[in-house]
Design brief:
9 strands; binds 2'-O-acetyl adenosine-5-diphosphoribose; 6-stranded parallel β-sheet; about 270 residues; 3-stranded antiparallel β-sheet; alpha/beta; disordered N terminus
Length: about 270
Amino acid sequence: MVQDAAGRGYHPGMRAAAIPPIDLGGDTRLLVMTGSGISAESGLATFRGAGGLWEGERVEAVATPEAFAADPARVWRFYGTRRAAAAVAVPNAAHLALAATEARLGDRFLLVTQNVDGLHAAAGSRHVIELHGSLWRSRCSRCRAAPVEDRSADVSPPLPTCPACDRPPARPALMRPDIVWFGESLNPASQEAVGQFIDDAALAGARLVFLAIGTSGNVWPAAGYVRYAAEAGAETWLANLDPALNEGWFDHVVAGPATQVVPALLGVT
Ligand code: OAD
Protein backbone atom coordinates (compact mmCIF):
# COMPACT_ATOMS: atom_id res chain seq x y z
CA MET A 1 0.00 0.00 0.00
CA VAL A 2 1.29 3.46 -0.88
CA GLN A 3 1.31 5.66 2.20
CA ASP A 4 2.34 9.17 3.11
CA ALA A 5 4.77 10.05 5.89
CA ALA A 6 1.99 9.80 8.48
CA GLY A 7 1.25 6.27 7.35
CA ARG A 8 -1.93 7.35 5.59
CA GLY A 9 -3.47 6.65 2.23
CA TYR A 10 -2.56 7.44 -1.29
CA HIS A 11 -1.36 10.34 -3.31
CA PRO A 12 -2.94 12.48 -6.00
CA GLY A 13 -2.39 11.12 -9.44
CA MET A 14 -2.60 7.46 -8.48
CA ARG A 15 -4.58 5.70 -11.19
CA ALA A 16 -7.91 4.32 -9.99
CA ALA A 17 -6.95 0.92 -11.32
CA ALA A 18 -4.08 0.87 -8.82
CA ILE A 19 -6.29 1.45 -5.78
CA PRO A 20 -7.03 -1.82 -4.02
CA PRO A 21 -10.60 -2.13 -2.71
CA ILE A 22 -11.41 -1.72 0.98
CA ASP A 23 -11.88 -5.10 2.65
CA LEU A 24 -15.65 -5.42 3.14
CA GLY A 25 -15.68 -9.17 3.68
CA GLY A 26 -17.13 -11.19 6.56
CA ASP A 27 -19.38 -9.23 8.88
CA THR A 28 -17.82 -5.85 8.02
CA ARG A 29 -20.22 -2.91 8.42
CA LEU A 30 -19.78 0.14 6.16
CA LEU A 31 -20.91 3.63 7.14
CA VAL A 32 -20.62 6.18 4.32
CA MET A 33 -20.88 9.96 4.64
CA THR A 34 -21.08 11.99 1.44
CA GLY A 35 -20.80 15.68 0.67
CA SER A 36 -21.23 17.89 -2.36
CA GLY A 37 -17.97 16.66 -3.95
CA ILE A 38 -19.66 13.39 -4.91
CA SER A 39 -22.11 15.29 -7.10
CA ALA A 40 -19.50 17.60 -8.66
CA GLU A 41 -18.98 15.28 -11.62
CA SER A 42 -22.75 15.25 -12.14
CA GLY A 43 -22.41 18.97 -12.85
CA LEU A 44 -23.53 20.37 -9.47
CA ALA A 45 -21.46 23.07 -7.78
CA THR A 46 -19.85 22.36 -4.41
CA PHE A 47 -20.07 24.99 -1.66
CA ARG A 48 -16.55 26.12 -0.83
CA GLY A 49 -13.55 27.00 -2.95
CA ALA A 50 -13.28 28.50 -6.42
CA GLY A 51 -16.60 28.40 -8.27
CA GLY A 52 -18.37 27.11 -5.15
CA LEU A 53 -21.87 28.25 -4.21
CA TRP A 54 -20.58 30.16 -1.17
CA GLU A 55 -18.22 32.15 -3.38
CA GLY A 56 -21.05 33.96 -5.13
CA GLU A 57 -23.50 34.05 -2.25
CA ARG A 58 -23.06 34.71 1.44
CA VAL A 59 -24.25 31.78 3.56
CA GLU A 60 -25.94 34.18 5.97
CA ALA A 61 -27.92 35.72 3.11
CA VAL A 62 -29.55 32.52 1.88
CA ALA A 63 -29.07 29.63 4.31
CA THR A 64 -30.27 30.87 7.69
CA PRO A 65 -33.76 31.37 9.16
CA GLU A 66 -32.87 35.06 9.61
CA ALA A 67 -32.15 35.39 5.88
CA PHE A 68 -35.54 33.88 5.07
CA ALA A 69 -37.31 36.23 7.47
CA ALA A 70 -35.51 39.23 5.96
CA ASP A 71 -35.78 38.41 2.26
CA PRO A 72 -37.70 35.19 1.47
CA ALA A 73 -37.80 35.94 -2.27
CA ARG A 74 -34.01 36.01 -2.42
CA VAL A 75 -33.74 32.72 -0.52
CA TRP A 76 -36.31 31.08 -2.82
CA ARG A 77 -34.40 32.39 -5.89
CA PHE A 78 -31.25 30.70 -4.59
CA TYR A 79 -32.98 27.36 -4.00
CA GLY A 80 -34.98 27.65 -7.23
CA THR A 81 -31.71 27.93 -9.15
CA ARG A 82 -30.38 24.90 -7.32
CA ARG A 83 -33.53 22.92 -8.06
CA ALA A 84 -33.18 23.77 -11.74
CA ALA A 85 -29.56 22.55 -11.78
CA ALA A 86 -30.31 19.38 -9.81
CA ALA A 87 -33.35 18.57 -11.98
CA VAL A 88 -31.14 17.96 -15.00
CA ALA A 89 -28.27 16.25 -13.13
CA VAL A 90 -27.89 12.49 -13.31
CA PRO A 91 -26.11 10.18 -10.86
CA ASN A 92 -22.48 9.42 -11.66
CA ALA A 93 -20.30 6.34 -11.19
CA ALA A 94 -19.68 7.15 -7.53
CA HIS A 95 -23.40 7.35 -6.67
CA LEU A 96 -23.98 4.12 -8.62
CA ALA A 97 -21.13 2.32 -6.85
CA LEU A 98 -22.69 3.18 -3.48
CA ALA A 99 -26.09 1.87 -4.60
CA ALA A 100 -24.46 -1.36 -5.80
CA THR A 101 -22.66 -1.70 -2.46
CA GLU A 102 -25.90 -1.25 -0.53
CA ALA A 103 -27.46 -4.00 -2.67
CA ARG A 104 -24.51 -6.23 -1.79
CA LEU A 105 -24.20 -5.51 1.94
CA GLY A 106 -27.86 -4.91 2.84
CA ASP A 107 -28.23 -3.99 6.53
CA ARG A 108 -24.45 -3.96 6.94
CA PHE A 109 -24.43 -0.66 4.98
CA LEU A 110 -25.63 2.82 5.92
CA LEU A 111 -25.45 5.92 3.71
CA VAL A 112 -25.61 9.34 5.29
CA THR A 113 -25.46 12.40 3.06
CA GLN A 114 -25.14 16.13 3.58
CA ASN A 115 -26.43 16.58 0.04
CA VAL A 116 -29.92 17.76 -0.75
CA ASP A 117 -29.85 16.93 -4.48
CA GLY A 118 -31.55 13.50 -4.37
CA LEU A 119 -28.90 11.88 -6.59
CA HIS A 120 -28.31 8.94 -4.24
CA ALA A 121 -31.96 7.93 -4.48
CA ALA A 122 -31.85 8.49 -8.24
CA ALA A 123 -28.88 6.09 -8.38
CA GLY A 124 -30.93 3.41 -6.65
CA SER A 125 -29.86 3.83 -3.03
CA ARG A 126 -32.87 2.72 -0.99
CA HIS A 127 -32.11 3.98 2.47
CA VAL A 128 -30.44 7.39 2.57
CA ILE A 129 -30.23 9.59 5.62
CA GLU A 130 -30.41 13.16 4.35
CA LEU A 131 -28.83 15.08 7.22
CA HIS A 132 -29.40 18.52 5.71
CA GLY A 133 -32.85 17.92 4.24
CA SER A 134 -33.94 17.81 0.62
CA LEU A 135 -34.22 20.27 -2.25
CA TRP A 136 -37.33 18.43 -3.37
CA ARG A 137 -39.50 19.19 -0.37
CA SER A 138 -40.99 22.38 1.07
CA ARG A 139 -42.56 22.93 4.46
CA CYS A 140 -44.34 25.63 6.37
CA SER A 141 -42.09 28.22 7.94
CA ARG A 142 -44.45 28.40 10.92
CA CYS A 143 -46.56 25.30 11.61
CA ARG A 144 -45.48 21.69 12.03
CA ALA A 145 -47.39 20.29 9.06
CA ALA A 146 -45.42 17.53 7.31
CA PRO A 147 -43.15 18.63 4.43
CA VAL A 148 -44.60 18.22 0.95
CA GLU A 149 -42.94 17.19 -2.29
CA ASP A 150 -42.19 20.31 -4.34
CA ARG A 151 -40.11 20.30 -7.51
CA SER A 152 -40.94 23.81 -8.65
CA ALA A 153 -37.84 25.74 -9.74
CA ASP A 154 -39.65 28.98 -10.51
CA VAL A 155 -40.55 30.28 -7.09
CA SER A 156 -41.19 33.89 -7.94
CA PRO A 157 -43.55 36.16 -5.96
CA PRO A 158 -46.24 35.73 -4.84
CA LEU A 159 -44.39 33.13 -2.79
CA PRO A 160 -46.20 29.92 -1.86
CA THR A 161 -48.06 29.87 1.46
CA CYS A 162 -48.95 26.99 3.77
CA PRO A 163 -52.41 25.52 3.00
CA ALA A 164 -52.82 24.50 6.67
CA CYS A 165 -52.12 28.02 7.99
CA ASP A 166 -53.83 29.83 5.16
CA ARG A 167 -57.30 29.70 6.75
CA PRO A 168 -58.77 32.69 8.56
CA PRO A 169 -58.42 33.68 11.29
CA ALA A 170 -54.79 32.47 11.01
CA ARG A 171 -52.39 34.73 9.14
CA PRO A 172 -50.86 33.14 6.03
CA ALA A 173 -47.40 31.69 6.53
CA LEU A 174 -44.82 31.23 3.79
CA MET A 175 -43.59 27.84 2.67
CA ARG A 176 -39.81 27.38 2.85
CA PRO A 177 -37.35 24.82 1.49
CA ASP A 178 -37.07 21.70 3.69
CA ILE A 179 -33.36 22.33 4.19
CA VAL A 180 -31.56 22.42 7.53
CA TRP A 181 -30.13 25.93 7.62
CA PHE A 182 -27.22 27.20 9.69
CA GLY A 183 -28.32 27.72 13.28
CA GLU A 184 -31.01 25.02 13.00
CA SER A 185 -30.98 21.56 14.55
CA LEU A 186 -30.66 18.35 12.62
CA ASN A 187 -33.46 15.83 12.80
CA PRO A 188 -32.63 13.85 15.97
CA ALA A 189 -33.81 10.62 14.28
CA SER A 190 -31.05 11.00 11.68
CA GLN A 191 -28.38 11.36 14.33
CA GLU A 192 -29.79 8.44 16.30
CA ALA A 193 -29.75 6.19 13.23
CA VAL A 194 -26.04 6.88 12.73
CA GLY A 195 -25.26 6.27 16.40
CA GLN A 196 -27.32 3.08 16.37
CA PHE A 197 -25.46 1.74 13.33
CA ILE A 198 -22.10 2.34 15.02
CA ASP A 199 -23.26 0.87 18.33
CA ASP A 200 -24.76 -2.20 16.63
CA ALA A 201 -21.42 -2.93 14.94
CA ALA A 202 -19.62 -2.70 18.27
CA LEU A 203 -22.22 -4.89 20.02
CA ALA A 204 -21.95 -7.53 17.29
CA GLY A 205 -18.15 -7.42 17.52
CA ALA A 206 -18.17 -6.65 13.79
CA ARG A 207 -15.49 -4.79 11.86
CA LEU A 208 -16.61 -1.23 11.11
CA VAL A 209 -15.41 0.89 8.19
CA PHE A 210 -16.22 4.60 7.86
CA LEU A 211 -15.84 6.21 4.43
CA ALA A 212 -16.31 9.94 3.81
CA ILE A 213 -16.58 11.11 0.20
CA GLY A 214 -16.40 14.60 -1.29
CA THR A 215 -16.70 16.70 1.83
CA SER A 216 -14.42 19.43 3.15
CA GLY A 217 -15.00 18.74 6.87
CA ASN A 218 -16.20 22.28 7.56
CA VAL A 219 -19.71 21.61 8.81
CA TRP A 220 -20.64 19.92 12.06
CA PRO A 221 -21.83 17.49 13.24
CA ALA A 222 -21.07 15.72 9.93
CA ALA A 223 -17.36 16.56 10.13
CA GLY A 224 -17.13 14.87 13.54
CA TYR A 225 -18.67 11.51 12.59
CA VAL A 226 -15.22 10.19 11.68
CA ARG A 227 -14.12 10.62 15.28
CA TYR A 228 -17.24 9.03 16.63
CA ALA A 229 -16.68 6.04 14.35
CA ALA A 230 -12.96 5.86 15.15
CA GLU A 231 -13.69 5.84 18.88
CA ALA A 232 -15.88 2.80 18.24
CA GLY A 233 -12.91 1.11 16.55
CA ALA A 234 -13.69 1.89 12.90
CA GLU A 235 -11.12 1.90 10.13
CA THR A 236 -11.60 5.32 8.55
CA TRP A 237 -11.22 6.41 4.92
CA LEU A 238 -11.55 9.76 3.18
CA ALA A 239 -11.97 10.04 -0.61
CA ASN A 240 -11.73 13.70 -1.59
CA LEU A 241 -10.30 15.83 -4.35
CA ASP A 242 -8.58 18.41 -2.12
CA PRO A 243 -7.31 18.31 1.45
CA ALA A 244 -10.17 18.41 3.97
CA LEU A 245 -10.19 20.29 7.25
CA ASN A 246 -10.64 17.08 9.28
CA GLU A 247 -8.25 15.01 7.16
CA GLY A 248 -5.94 14.29 10.09
CA TRP A 249 -8.61 12.16 11.76
CA PHE A 250 -8.68 9.56 8.96
CA ASP A 251 -6.54 6.43 8.77
CA HIS A 252 -6.51 6.55 4.96
CA VAL A 253 -6.83 9.50 2.61
CA VAL A 254 -7.37 8.93 -1.09
CA ALA A 255 -7.05 12.02 -3.25
CA GLY A 256 -8.87 12.00 -6.56
CA PRO A 257 -12.19 12.43 -8.34
CA ALA A 258 -15.04 10.47 -6.79
CA THR A 259 -16.08 8.79 -10.04
CA GLN A 260 -12.70 7.08 -10.21
CA VAL A 261 -11.80 6.59 -6.57
CA VAL A 262 -15.14 5.41 -5.14
CA PRO A 263 -15.83 2.52 -7.55
CA ALA A 264 -12.22 1.40 -7.06
CA LEU A 265 -12.40 1.55 -3.26
CA LEU A 266 -15.68 -0.35 -3.23
CA GLY A 267 -14.50 -2.91 -5.76
CA VAL A 268 -17.32 -1.99 -8.17
CA THR A 269 -16.20 -2.24 -11.77
P1 OAD B 1 -17.72 21.70 0.36
O1 OAD B 1 -17.93 22.57 -0.83
O2 OAD B 1 -17.36 22.35 1.64
O3 OAD B 1 -16.62 20.62 0.06
C1 OAD B 1 -16.67 19.83 -1.10
C2 OAD B 1 -15.44 18.94 -1.14
O4 OAD B 1 -15.57 18.07 -2.27
C3 OAD B 1 -14.13 19.71 -1.30
O5 OAD B 1 -13.23 19.37 -0.25
C4 OAD B 1 -13.60 19.26 -2.67
O6 OAD B 1 -12.21 19.04 -2.67
C5 OAD B 1 -14.32 17.94 -2.88
N1 OAD B 1 -14.55 17.63 -4.31
C6 OAD B 1 -14.83 18.49 -5.32
N2 OAD B 1 -14.99 17.82 -6.46
C7 OAD B 1 -14.78 16.49 -6.17
C8 OAD B 1 -14.80 15.30 -6.93
N3 OAD B 1 -15.04 15.29 -8.23
N4 OAD B 1 -14.54 14.13 -6.29
C9 OAD B 1 -14.28 14.12 -4.95
N5 OAD B 1 -14.25 15.21 -4.19
C10 OAD B 1 -14.51 16.39 -4.78
O7 OAD B 1 -19.08 20.84 0.50
P2 OAD B 1 -19.60 19.97 1.73
O8 OAD B 1 -18.48 19.43 2.55
O9 OAD B 1 -20.59 19.02 1.18
O10 OAD B 1 -24.85 22.76 4.14
O11 OAD B 1 -20.36 21.08 2.57
C11 OAD B 1 -21.02 20.70 3.74
C12 OAD B 1 -22.24 21.57 3.95
O12 OAD B 1 -21.87 22.95 3.86
C13 OAD B 1 -23.32 21.42 2.90
O13 OAD B 1 -24.19 20.34 3.14
C14 OAD B 1 -24.03 22.74 2.97
C15 OAD B 1 -22.84 23.66 3.07
O14 OAD B 1 -23.06 24.89 3.64
C16 OAD B 1 -26.03 23.41 4.12
O15 OAD B 1 -26.44 24.06 3.18
C17 OAD B 1 -26.80 23.28 5.39
